[in-house]
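INTERNAL AUDIT FORM
Audit reference: QA-55
Scope: verify that the stored structure record matches its stored sequence.
Auditor: D.O.
Record contents follow.
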Amino acid sequence: PNKPDVGANCHAYVEDRLIPHYVGFMKGAGQVPTKLLSAFNRRCMQELGMQKTRFYQLRKGEIPLHPWEAERIASIFVELGINEDEAFDNVVMRYDI
């Protein structure tokens, strides 16, 4: 940590910065039209490559989303005409490890 170039040379180095992690997207899922909701759920599971149990835990906010998961879900909301700022329930600042 005392050397300025340690991040470039060490593969195990973790940068000391906070990253926003989105928690839950029930607010956005509530804005999806009812007849499109099952297709929305299937597409999210397919895009994220996960089973129902984990998807529903993410949707309810039991597990925070990784930044790449939040980006993919936000892009699906945008395609449906839902503003991504209104899609997620909460934002938690965490260290990305």
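Auditor finding: record pair retrieved intact. Helices lie at 6-9, 26-29, 34-48, 52-60, 67-79.
Action required: none
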